[in-house]
Design a protein that fits this description.
This protein is 36% helix and 18% strand. It has helices spanning 52-63, 67-80, 90-106; strands spanning 39-45, 82-89, 112-117. The chain is elongated and about 75 Å long. The N and C termini lie far apart (87 Å). Bound molecules: L-tyrosinamide (TYC). L-tyrosinamide binds at residues 44-48, 50-52, 55, 74, 77-78, 111. The site of L-tyrosinamide (TYC) has 13 residues, from strand 1, helix 1 and helix 2.
Length: 118
Amino acid sequence: MPDEQPPAPPKPPAPSRRGSGQDAVVVERKAARTKPPQLYQVVMLNDDYTPMEFVVMMLQQYFQRDPDTATLIMLKIHHEGRGICGVYTKDVAATKVELVLTAARREGHPLQCIMEAA
Ligand code: TYC
């Protein structure tokens, strides 16, 4: 057949009023990838030798407590054996423990300060 035409290429789908969708960006909702950081409480322990004034000073200096709050926290530790100085992210809590222990040892006090997961 001399005037036979080659087969027509397939037609692209007819564009709808909202576009073909071929270059659309699909945004999938994903679970949030970041979790809030684990927090740690810095806890001071009671002992029989560290002066009350020194503990109050530590609470003001390193935990930003006003004098009345620092005194209340110190008395709580004195009566109950332990008390929370503050709650922080891991590195901040570890630094505060280190600063308190360094200051206490420099003054020859046996004050104990620890951090624990909040
Ligand atoms: N118990 C101490 C005293 O009577 C005072 C004190 C309070 C010590 C809190 C440590 O974490 C502490 N001098």
